[in-house]
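can u do me a favor
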């Protein structure tokens, strides 16, 4: 047994030979129905312990053929982080972002175009009905 910070949180230490069985029971079992990485990890961590647990659970869930077939392959949709250029005076460099769709206003606007100054971080928000380039260019 592996004891956590209190005696109520005791977990079984799993030998390498049984890790696969634990993963199958916490992810593939009919009562849990392929819950994904975070829920599978939570179920495993509640009752068990072994070194490299996160890595093993992540690899197991990522290679689950049933999950892949049902959910499909989803490549990361996050752009890589980039350095924000510095500015030496106000409104030398600005960022433009679209927020929405939001609840449609009385004027028919459902988007906000937000322009932020890199120097002061001062934001300006403009309500617009759509985010087509012709609409945004008029700002």
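np, heres the sequence
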């Amino acid at each position: 047994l592996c004891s956590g910070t209190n005696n109520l949180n005791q977990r079984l230490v799993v030998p390498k030979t049984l890790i696969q069985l634990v993963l199958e029971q916490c992810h593939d079992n009919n009562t849990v129905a392929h819950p994904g990485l975070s829920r599978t990890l939570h179920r495993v961590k509640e009752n068990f312990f072994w070194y490299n647990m996160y890595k093993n659970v992540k690899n197991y869930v990522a290679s689950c053929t049933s999950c892949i077939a049902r959910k499909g392959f989803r490549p990361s949709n996050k752009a890589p982080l980039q350095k924000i250029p510095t500015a030496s005076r106000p409104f030398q460099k600005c960022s433009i972002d679209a927020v929405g769709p939001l609840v449609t206003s009385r004027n028919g606007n459902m988007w906000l175009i937000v322009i932020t100054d890199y120097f002061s971080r001062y934001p300006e928000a403009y309500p617009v009905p759509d985010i087509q380039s012709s609409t945004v260019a008029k700002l």
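Residues 99 and 112 are 5 Å apart (CA to CA). hope that helps!!
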